[in-house]
C-alpha cells in the first residue's frame, strides 16, 4: 500500500518536474521578449539573454504607444479589435452551419463540393493576392475593413473541415432520436449538434482570433490610410533596414499585442476541456 | 475511394471552368489600361484652383514618417486647394503593395520610387514623363546639376526626381585603426592597400578588418568592373545583356574576397547575413574596423547607433584603373503615376519638396544630400556632425566619380539573387570563382534575354 | 393496390431527398456563395496567368505551356525548393504532430496546475510570424545567441557559428521553430480527447484494461477523425510554409532554406514573373492534392466513424 502511494507521489513529481523543465524551454523566448520590453536600448543588446531587466523601464511602453505620425497604438488596437471580432464571429458561425450541411445531410453534389472546398485550401495564397486585390478594388472595397471582414461570413474551409471531423464523433442515433421527436434539420443542428461541438467551435474561435490578429499581408494590401492600420501592420513600421530601430518600443508593443490573444486563450481553454465530458453523453 | 474521385472531379471541374475564365482576366486588365488612358486626357483640363485630393505613398522609418507628414502639412497650408492622403509603411511589403496597386490600376498619384525598380515601372508606361514640366518651368531644376538628375532618366525621359544624392562608402572607426597602428585610408587607397589594411588590422587586433567586401557582392563587383573599362558596367546600355566581356574581373574580385575570408579578416556570410539594421553592425559593436558596403546617407543612422565618432572614405581604386568606379546614385525618387488625374498638382508638390528651403530644413537631408545647390547651402550652417560628414563625402565623390551606369533592367532582382547565391557558394568553397563567373554569365544572360522579350 | 403503394413510397422518398437537397444546400450556402464570389474567380485567374507571361504591370501574354515546360526542364531552383520543402515537411510535420499529441495527452486531465501548463505550452504558438520571432530566433541561434553562449561556456565551441545562417544547420533551426510552435494541433487534439465519452474509459477499467490498452483500444481509434484532420492540415501547411523562411533566413544561405512558397513569392513579387509563380502554385496544388487524396483514400481503413452506422 505504502509503496503504491510512494510510486504515485514520485510519479507526480516526475510529471510536474518534466513539464516545468521542458516548459522553461518552451516559454523562454516569450519571457525574453517580455523582459526586453522593459530593458533600455543598451541592455537589450548587451545582456541579451538575461531574463531579468536591471530596472523596470516603462519608457518603452510610453514611447511605443505614441505610434507613428500622430496616430497612437490606441487607434491601431481599436482597428484590430473591430476587424478581428467581426471576422471571428462570422467565421465560426458560418463554418458551423456549413460543416453541418456537409457532415450530416446527404445531398446531390455533396462529395464534389467537399472536394472543391479541400482544393481551395491547396492553392498558395501568394498567387491569389493579385487577383483578389483586383476583385476587391473592382467592388470598391479597398481602403476599408470590408475585404478583411466580409469574406469571413462565408465559411472558412479549415474550420468547416475541423467541425465536420468533430461531428463524425457524434453518434447518428442522436439525430434520429431528435427527428422522431419532431425536430427538422435546423432543430437537429441547433439543439443537438451545436452544443456538442462546442470544443471545436471554441478551438476555431481561438485560431480565428489569432490568425486575424496577426494577419499582415491582408491589411498591407487593402488598408491605405494609416489611421485604419491594425496592430500587425503598425508593428512592422518600427524597423526599417536603413534607420535606427527603437527596439525597446517595438518589443513593448509586440508584448502588448500578445495580451489580447493570450487573454482569449486563457478564457477559452477551460471551455474546450470542459467540453463534452460533462454533458453525460452515452455512446 | 469516393472522396478521392471527388477530389479529381473537382479539379477537372475547375480546370474546365478556367477555359472560360481567360477572357475574364483579359477584360480586367484591358479595362485598367483604358481607364489609365482616359485619366491622362482628362487631366490637362483640370484647373489649378479646383479642390483636389491626392494619394501619396512612401516607405521609411519613424523619423521619415514624422518629417514627411510635417512637410505635407506645410505644403497644404501654402496650397489650401490640395489635400493629401498620406499612406506610409515600412520597406517590408512596400513593393508587394505597389505591385498589387499597379495590377489593379490604382497606383497612388505620387509615390516614393527606388533605383532598383524604376525602369521596371517606367518601361510599362506607368510613370509620368516629367521632362515637359521641367521645360515649361513648372518643375524647377535650375539649381540641380545633371549628375543628380541622370539616375531618373530612362530612354531619354525623366521618370523620377532624385530625393537625395548618395554614394557607396566605407565607414571606419579611426580608434581601431590607431590601435592596430595602421594609417587611416585616404581617397587614393587601392585594392592592394585595402587587402593589406584589413589583414593587418585582423592580425594586430583580432577583430575583423571589415564587415563585408567593399560594395558587397553586387555593387562591389560593379565598381570593380567599371574601373576596368571605359564602357564597362554590370549591365549593357540597353539592359539586354551583361555589360562586360571578360570574366577575369569577376574572378579577381571574388578570389580576393575568398582570400580575406580564409584569412579570417572578414566574416563568413552567415555572420554578416545576421546584420539587419544599423545596430546589428559589427562596426557598431566594435567587432570590426570598417563597414565596406553602405550608402552614404546611412552614416547618420550608423553614427547614432555607435554613439562615437566614425569616418567615411571612398571605395578602393584599382591600380591600373581606366576610370573611377565610384558614382553618384539617387537614394530614392518621387515618381508621378502616368494616369494621375492631377499631374500639375503632383508636379507642384514634387517641385516644392525638392526646392523649398523650409521644408528641407524639417527633413534635414534624411533621404540623402538634397539635389538643389540652394537648399544645400541653406542647410549647411545648421547641420549636425554626421549630416555634415555626409555632405562633405558627397562633394568628395563628385571629384572622384564617373557617370552612373544604365538603369537596372527588368530581371535585376533575379540576377541580384543569383549573384548572392554564387558569392555565398564561393565563400563556403562550394564553387570556384572561375566556375562561378562562367555560371553567372550563362544564367544572367538567360534572365536578361527572357526579360527583354 | 400494390402499384399504388410503391408509387406512394417512391413519392415519399423523392420528397425526402428533395428536402435533404434543399436543406443541404441551405446549410452550405454561405460557403458556396463565398466560394463562387471570392475564391473561384481569383483561382481561375491564377490558373489563366499560369499559361501567360505576366509581369503584374502589364497585360498577360498567352504562352501556353511554356511556364510549365521551363519549370521541369531548366529551373534548378524549382528542384531545389521542392527538395527543401519535402525535407521540411517530412521532418517537421511528424515531429510536430507526435509532440502535440503527447503533450495533449499529458494535459487532458484537469489536475492542479494543468490549465497553467496548457497556457505555457501554447504560448510559443501565439507569437507566430511577428517581427519579434525573427529577432528572437537570432538571439537564440545567432552568432551571439544564447545557444552559442551556453556551448562556449562549456568549452564545446571552437568557432563562432551562426546556426540560422550556416548552410548545414539553417534548415534545422526552422524545423525546430515549427516543432516548437505545436500549439494549434495540440489544441485540436485536446478538444478531440475531451470529446471521447468518459463512460468508455469507465467500462474499460471495469473490464480491467490497463493504461496502454485503453490508449490503443479507445483513445487512438476514437481520435482518428481528429488525427486525419491534423495530418491533412499540417501537411498542407508544411508545403505552404512561408513566413519562417521569409522573415528569418530569406531562403539563404544559397537557397538551403528556399521553401517552395518563398520561391513562388520571389518569382511573383520580387522578379515580377507572376505567370511563372502561378504555374508553380498549380504544380504545388497538384502535389498536395496527390498527398491529400492518398490520405483520404487510406482513411477508409483507419479512421473510425461514429456516424458510419449505415
Describe the structure.
The complex is a heterotrimer of chains A (283), B (453) and C (310). By secondary structure, chain A is mainly α. Chain A is 70% helix and 0% strand. Chain A folds into two domains: 2-57; 63-279, MetI-like fold (Orthogonal Bundle), CATH 1.10.3720. Chain A is built from 14 helices and no strands. With 453 residues, chain B is an alpha+beta fold. Chain B contains 18 helices and twelve strands. Chain B has helices at residues 2-43, 62-78, 94-103, 118-123, 131-136, 146-150, 174-180, 191-205, 216-227, 248-262, 269-272, 299-306, 343-355, 357-363, 373-379, 385-399, 412-427, 433-452, and strands at 52-59, 82-89, 110-113, 153-154, 157-158, 161-162, 165-166, 168-172, 290-295, 311-313, 329-330, 333-336. Chain B has a five-stranded mixed sheet with strand order 2-1-3-12-6, with helices on one face. Chain B has a three-stranded antiparallel sheet with strand order 9-8-10, with helices on both faces. Chain B has a two-stranded antiparallel ribbon with strand order 4-5. In chain B, helix 10 (248-262) packs across helix 18 (433-452). The radius of gyration of chain B is 24 Å and the shape is globular. Chain B starts with a helix and ends with a helix. Mean pLDDT of chain B is 85; it is low at 1-47. A two-stranded antiparallel ribbon of chain C has the order 1-2. Chain C starts with a helix and ends in an 8-residue tail after the last helix. Chain C has a domain at 75-132 and 176-302: MetI-like fold. Classes of the chains: A mainly alpha (283), B alpha+beta (453), C mainly alpha (310). The interface between A and C is large, with 101 and 100 residues.
